[in-house]
Amino acid sequence: MIALNPDENSRLPYLLRLPQPGGDLLFRTSGTWPRVKGLYCHPVSLDEWPTDAAIVERLELRSCQRRGAAIDVILQRSRENRSQLVFTTARGRDAVFWQAPRTRKQARPNVRTPTARAQGIEGLQILVDSHERYAYQFGTQQANTVQRALPCGDYGLDVDGRLVASVERKSLADLVSSLTSGKLRYQIADLAALPRAAVVVEDRYSQVFKLDWVRPAVVADGLAEVQIRWPNVPIVFCETRQLAEEWTYRFLAAAHTWAITETSALQRISAASGNVTELDLAAAAPEPSTAEVRAWARTTGLSVPDRGKLRPDIWQAWHDANDAR
């Protein structure tokens, strides 16, 4: 069972309760399942389980057995059914980590990503699709994020009111699923309509040939086919989520520099050229949300209501300021 932690001051918002032969075990944890990374678990007494617990998930178990320094947890469901709680030490202290096969096997490249700003851009603004789950935060990069409903991709770049670049993020499982279902072809076709776009995969290409629920040759052939069909949308394997996030940041920063300062881009953007170019054909940038405009208006001293629609003059003021930039 997983319940909400009644302690509002705790950084671990959930309680995880596991049955064991000698008595149930209770942990505070930061998530309901280790989907993208291992979750830290803090063991606590069963007395902390509230009598009126707000149950988030009650999951039927196929198996929950302790094997040495780990507890193997197998759920009675077809997907995301295996995980493991590992008892170890971190910085000289006892610690417990909850991990799934994907997070456990994920490569550890032992590299430290640079902190220098990409392309010399300070505070690069990256659009994040509002439907993106477990989105990159770009916390270690010099960038800020704004949520929008993007027409394609998960992370986009707005230059002069146009969506000129976008990156679609994929886990290996999502990549294979969308490829075999045909969904990936439509996604890449949409991305190909932008001046610059890419698909970034949070895994190594070698893992394609270790798949056991689909023939690896089918996946390899499919990836080769979409690259031949849409060569302007590269599929980049970045080994880990951390490196995929770093690559996405650097790619969008380079696209920003290309669209703003490169001589050929300036010639394309110039109205005097009279030619229709790929930047001219780029999709219009998504409109900001009401919450974003409301927050902006307050920083400029404009009076806005706490909820509901904004007055037309507030929207016009935002567009005037945006056009000025």
- Percent strand equals 25-35%
| Second-tier CATH architecture of the largest domain | 3-Layer(aba) Sandwich
How would you sum up the global shape? globular
Alpha-beta content class: alpha+beta
> What's the total count of β strands?
16
Overall domain count: 2
Instruction: Tell me the series of helices and strands, N- to C-terminal.
Output: EEEEEEEEEHEEEEHHEHEHHEHH
Radius of gyration: 24 Å
Helical fraction? 25-40%
Average pLDDT score: 85
Overview of the molecule:
It is a single chain. The model has no long low-confidence stretch (mean pLDDT about 85). The radius of gyration is 24 Å and the shape is globular. Helix 7 (about 290-300) packs across helix 8. Helices cover about 30% and strands about 25% of the residues. The protein has a nine-stranded antiparallel β-sheet with strand order 5-1-2-3-4-9-8-7-6. Strands 10, 11, 12, 13, 14, 15 and 16 form a seven-stranded mixed β-sheet that branches. A hairpin with a 2-residue loop joins strand 12 (about 155-160) and strand 13. It is built from eight helices and 16 strands. It has about 325 residues and is an alpha+beta fold. It folds into two domains: about 1-105, no CATH class; about 120-270, Rossmann fold (3-Layer(aba) Sandwich), CATH 3.40.50.10130. This is ERCC4-type nuclease. GO terms for molecular function: acyltransferase activity; DNA binding; nuclease activity.
